[in-house]
Structure formats: structure tokens, C-alpha cells
Amino acid sequence: MSRLIVPSRQADEEGKTLKVTPASAGWKYVGFEVYTLQPGQTLKKDTGDREVCLVLLIGQSHVSTQNGEWKNIGERMSVFEQIPPYSVYIPSGDSYEVEAVTDLELAVCSAPGKGTYPARLIGPEDVGVEKRGAGNMKRRIHNILPEQKPADSLLVVEVFTPEGNWSSYPPHKHDQDHLPEESYLEETYYHKVNPDHGFAVQRVYTDDRSLDETMVVKNGDAVLVPEGYHPVSAPPGYDIYYLNVMAGPVRTWKFHNDPDHEWVMERKKAAKYS
After folding, report:
1. pLDDT for the residue 267
2. For residue 74, what are the contacts with CB-CB under 8 A and spacing of at least 6?
3. For the stretch 64-81, what's the b/e string if a residue is b when 16 or more beta carbons lie within 10 angstroms of its beta carbon?
4. What is residue 2's DSSP assignment?
5. pLDDT above 90 (res 134)
6. How far apart (Å, rounded) are the C-alpha atoms in residues 55 and 178?
7. Which H or E run contains 190?
8. Of 9, 61, 98, 110, which sits most exposed with the smallest number of CB within 10 A?
9. For 8-44, how does the pLDDT look when each residue is reduced to its tens digit (9 = 90+)?
């Protein structure tokens, strides 16, 4: 298995099925965990020096922090319902408790925090929805925590790629701290596949090919993107979902397309309007 793939495991006593830390990933900023909780089961954590975005992937829960409480949040029972999720932003220096009301799949996204912003609910109405791409590069985007919304480090977005389509395409990267042209952002992809016995294909590669991996990604796998371009393909018959978490020294998403493939987008645009 590629060193860039972190597979889901059987839930531990806390309900944790997947864990990525800066130390385990060999980078500095992004942390990512997934928990599956049974009704009535609780998860309690301190945020420490990191800010957190809790994304309710599936199910309903109660969530409380030191200064806020939100009851019976959550709506979708599958990510493939393609409705925006409920999420909760929590600053560093805080704590949170999640109690599952139904079977719950919870993503815990984290990055260094400064305690600048208070905890808040991010409801479906707060999530920006957009269609991106053209032709077989079309995909649906849910901007959960984009750079236009307050946070210290975190950027969080989810993407739905229909069967037979490509996303994160044309291939792009954000591995240089070279603003305003490009920002340095570490990134995780948490993949779900429908039907769940299928797979996605993801490639991660650099210009000099010192990193060049093409991976078969299964339902529940996370992929680490420490650098390089990172396109995703959804095979015929299988819709693909992924949750992206990004963070770096500056909270902005400035990417650079692979010049070998950028022309594809211009061709699609020309075909759309011809």
C-alpha cells in the first residue's frame, strides 16, 4: 500500500476509525480524524493549541463547547444525498463534547489555532454550493470553511464527483509559499465510494517526478497530499465523495495548474459555448 494512503480501521473504544496527525503525516499543520459513534455514545476532547472543525458526515448529534451548545444537529444519512452538512467550528483553548443521537460518522479536522474566533455552528445554509468544471470534469462543491469565512488556519471543503468524471482537474498543486501566485497548503482527502465496494483512483506527483504515485483508493481511505498535483478519477458505476482539509502558513488557496494539462479546461469551455 502507498505510504500516502491511511485506511480506516475498526473503531476503537472512543469510536475512532482513522487518525492523521502532523507527526504521522510528516508535516506541520493538518490533523484529521474520523469517529463512528452509536446512539448515546459521547466523545469529549480539548482542542489545546489547535482549532477544530467538526463535520457531521452522517447522522445527528448534540454538540457543546465551553461557550455554546447545539442540539439535534445533522440531517443527512448518507454523504451521497448531496445536501450540505452541519459542522461546528471550535477555537483553540476550548473543548467540545459530541453525543450521538443516531448512528454518527464524524470528521474532526484540525490545524494550529490562535483562539481568534468563538465557536459557532456552520449550518447547511452557511455552506457555499457550486458546480465546478465542464464536461466530464464537472463536480459539486460544498464550501464548509472557505477562506472567506473566519478561522485561523483551517480550510474545509467537500466534493462530489459523478461516475466517469474527474475532479481536482486539471491537476493542480499548492506546495510553494510563493504568494500571490501560489500558497503552501498541506491537504488530506477522505474518500467515500458509492456503491461502497468500488474504488477511486488518485494520482499525486511533482514536476520532477520525485513523487509520482497512482493509487487505488477504497471507501473510507484518506490520502495525504504533502506536495504535488493530485487529480481524482471516479470509475464508471461509482460516485465519489471526498472531504478535503487544508492548512498552511497563510490561510489562502492559491493553486498552480499543471501546464501540461491546463489546455483541457480551455477546450471544455470552448465546447460549452460553441
Report:
1. 64
2. 56, 59, 60, 61, 85, 86, 101, 102, 104
3. bbeebebeebbebeebbe
4. -
5. no
6. 30
7. strand 186-194
8. 9
9. 999 999 999 999 999 999 999 999 999 999 999 999 9
Q: Which domains are delineated in the chain? A: 5-262 (2.60.120.10)
- The burial class, CB within 10 Å (0-12 / 13-18 / 19+), for 25 is buried
Element (H, E) at 264: helix 263-273
Residue count (the chain):
274
Q: How far is CA 70 from CA 35, 74, 83, 253, in A?
A: 19, 10, 19, 30
- Give the model confidence (pLDDT) of 233-267 as tens digits: 999 999 999 999 999 999 999 999 999 998 887 76
| CA triple 126-132-135, angle to 5 deg | 150
pLDDT at 269 over 60: no
**Whether the model pTM is above 0.85:** yes
Q: Cα–Cα distances in Å, from 216 out to 51, 96, 159, 188?
A: 31, 35, 18, 16
pLDDT at 125 over 80: yes
Residue 79's contacts (CB-CB under 8 Å, 6 or more residues apart) are: 57, 58, 85, 158, 192, 241
Amino acid at 60: Q
Q: CB 273: neighbour CB atoms within 10 A?
A: 7
Mean pLDDT of 182-205: 98
Q: Which residue has the cell 489562502?
A: 252
162 half-sphere exposure, CB direction, 13 A CA radius:
10
User: 150 is written with which cell numbers?
Assistant: 473566519
Query: In the beta sheet, which residues pair with residue 173?
Result: 256
33, HSE (Cβ side, Cα atoms, 13 Å)? 19
Residue from 56, 235, 81 nearest 162 by CA: 235
